[in-house]
Design a protein that fits this description.
single chain; 130 residues; 0% strand; flat
């Protein structure tokens, strides 16, 4: 059972605090709507919003690490490229879209990432950031 915690520790490209903060940023909107629902007396919608944000915060770090592991060969191959102004802006917009898509799909991708990271940890091929 130690590999379950090992899946959270088994990270190579991301740090846990920054991943949790990035996972919670869009969740502020859901917390706001949850608080409004609580104040209006709809405790089911408020509870659902809070549970959704908590699941997102727990799943986003695993989804983010999985994304970085999958795209690492592409980033290593294109690491020395110098991008002129308009192309750099386009790349920035694409990266923001990837952040939004990854946040929206964080729960299913996080479950798959958890399975992958836990299995590599259990096999003894885990990674630790020093």
């Amino acid at each position: 059972m130690r590999f379950v915690l090992g899946a959270w520790i088994n990270r190579r490209y991301t740090r846990l605090p920054s991943s949790i903060v990035l996972g919670l940023l869009p969740g502020v909107i859901f917390i706001f709507t949850g608080v409004r629902a609580f104040l209006e007396g709809d405790w089911i919608a408020g509870t659902a919003a809070v549970i959704f944000v908590v699941l997102q915060a727990l799943a986003y770090p695993l989804a983010r690490e999985s994304y970085f592991r999958v795209t690492q060969p592409m980033r290593a191959g294109m690491g020395g490229w110098i991008l002129p102004g308009p192309l750099a802006l386009l790349i920035l917009l694409v990266r923001f879209n990837v952040y939004i898509y990854l946040w929206v799909l964080a729960i299913p991708v996080g479950i798959a990432g958890f399975c992958y990271l836990a299995l590599t940890e259990r096999a003894g091929n885990g990674w630790r950031l020093a």
